[in-house]
Amino acid sequence: MAEIINNELAQEFESLLLSTHREGIDKLIAYLKLKTDFFSAPASTRFHSSCPGGLLQHSMNVYKMLKAKSQTETWKSTLSREDTIIIVSLLHDICKANFYAVEMRNRKNENGVWEKYPFYIIDDKNPYGHGEKSVMMIMEFMKLTAEEKYAIRWHMGFSEPKENYNALGKAMEYYPIVVALHEADLEATYLLESGVEK
Q1: Predicted confidence (pLDDT) per residue in 125-163, tens digit
Q2: What is the distance between the alpha carbons of residues 192 and 85, in angstroms, rounded to a whole number?
Q3: Cβ contact 188:180 at 8 Å
Q4: What is the pLDDT averaged over residues 96-118?
Q5: DSSP annotation string for 15-43
Q6: What integer pLDDT is reported at residue 196 of this predicted model?
Q7: Closest of 55, 160, 132, 145 to residue 99, by C-alpha
Q8: How far is the CA of 79 from the CAs of 27, 148, 194, in angstroms?
Q9: Burial of residue 71, with CB atoms counted within 10 A of its CB: 0-12 exposed, 13-18 middle, 19 or more buried
């Protein structure tokens, strides 16, 4: 069983997922707890939430931002299903489970003495992309609606390679939730988490 850094946050995460009553969600949660480092992994190597438990924190932050959007006039009709809000926000980065490793690097401390420090690196043993990998992993345990699949697949928005912009634009046109999840992801990253070890 993987280490859980923040038990309270992990319980909230699990409770939210179980509240969707999706068939297979219990198996997905068990997989995350028993077979992955989801609850102790960082959300990135150094850009945001690059600390133990950062991936869980980031997922919860994206949920908070997407939930807040659902209360606005602009988004309330698009984001009307609570189960969809929970699933796309909490599971959009499931692809980052078992994705990072720690290596030791050297740096000088404040006294000018060299010391070793841990540094996150990417160690992708299942190179299947990012959003598409999250969709694949989720669907091994449960079904997703079409809009959930598209939202998770394209949640990186225009961080995608420019060759994908036409497909991304079409996905946003057909499923506006793609835009909402991408915005919530950016808001969580840059408004709540930007910088190292937040």
Answers
A1: 888 999 999 999 999 999 999 999 999 999 999 989 899
A2: 19
A3: no
A4: 90
A5: HHHHTT--TTHHHHHHHHHHH--TTT--S
A6: 42
A7: 55
A8: 26, 11, 26
A9: exposed
